[in-house]
Amino acid sequence: MRPRPTIRLRLTALYALLVFLAGGLLLAVSYALLDGHLHDTLTDAAADSILRDLRGQYVLALVAVTVMAVLLGWLVAGRALGRLRTIEAAAIAVSGESLGRRVALQGPDDELRELANAFDAMLERLDAAFASQKRFVANASHELRTPLTVLRTEVDVALADPDATADDLRAMAEVVRDEVTRFEALLASLLALARSEAGALESDSQVDLAETARRVVERLRPEAAENEVRLSLHAEHVMVAGDPELLEQLVFNLVENAVAHNRRDGFAVVRLGPRGTDALLEVTNGGPPVPADEVALLTEPFHRFDRRRAGRGAGVGLSIVRAVATAHGGRLLLVAREEGGLLAEVVLPGLRAERDRPDARGSARRRPASGAPSTASRAPRAGRRRR
Predict the structure, then answer these.
(1) DSSP of 232-271, one letter per residue?
(2) Taking Cα atoms as reference points, which of 80, 1, 9, 5 lies closest to residue 17?
(3) DSSP β-ladder status, 205-208 and 239-242
(4) Whole-model pTM?
(5) Residue 154: inside a domain, yes or no?
(6) Are 365 and 250 in the same domain?
(7) What is the pLDDT of residues 75-127, one digit of tens each?
(8) Alpha carbon of 19 to those of 58, 62, 68, 106, 249: distances in Å?
(9) Does residue 131 lie in a domain region?
(10) Exposure pattern of 196-220 as b/e (b: 16+ CB <10 Å)?
């Protein structure tokens, strides 16, 4: 059975071959020079006798050097690859429950050290992703269980009361209807979040973001008036490429958060315009102060800063905003205002002139991921989520 062609074996064979070829070439050149010199200074018989003995010695020397090269090459290759086996052992030991392991390779700052550092950085990203996924699953399970518990409780109470009147049943039906509506909105939000994080954009259409912002603001004016919040819009014409439903979801969630997380006689200002070649959307509100250490957590799914003002939302609004912005090649920035409230800034790539051509737009279009859920019909309605 032939030995497995490992990297160590191949490196050893390469070292030995190089030594054999270099030694053979050196001995061949030396033999040729001695051949000419001996035939010029000695008789042919004496020269041939000396060269015959020399050939045997040269062959033995070449074989001995080659054997030494094999031994030394095997040792050197093993030492060089020993650090690689450290990385291999760490990779084998990693699992979903042991992502905290790190290679932490010691030794010279060479390519293997760079590989180990890259592997450690990958493990850190995976660890963070797994932790975020576990939190998401736990929170989603809790949020999905809550309306189901309310539904079952209402139905059980109604069924257990033999004297329930029509008004009692109507009240129970209204509670069930509200919970079903909340449940549908939560599922739509979770689907929108999953679709955005997967980058599964159903279209790469030209979207007038100013017109989208105007529609959203008009939809939210009654809620703003009910909360005694002054809602204003300052929009310049700006075009972006992307999924119209998800982009409307992004604007809706930002503006609704600004209205809902506010104070009486507060304000919410929506500004939209170009920033160089990009589109800039700013939403500012005058709500209660937000601690600086809470700002980074606002985009985590199901995180609520002010639960008293969270209403019936699930706390995925800003998570959807961040995911939609990222899926469109943009970014979300949240800044706590010293006077209270929040400044939310979304930057999206603007629609460049060359993208107006059908061939350019076609090449840039992203297709939906296989099996990705579609929320095109429900995404805007799912926007009523609280941060």
Answers:
(1) EEEE---EEEE-HHHHHHHHHHHHHHHHHS--TTEEEEEE
(2) 9
(3) antiparallel
(4) 0.56
(5) no
(6) yes
(7) 888 887 777 878 878 788 777 666 777 777 777 777 778 888 888 888 888 88
(8) 14, 9, 9, 31, 68
(9) no
(10) bbbbbbbbbeebbbbebbbebbeeb
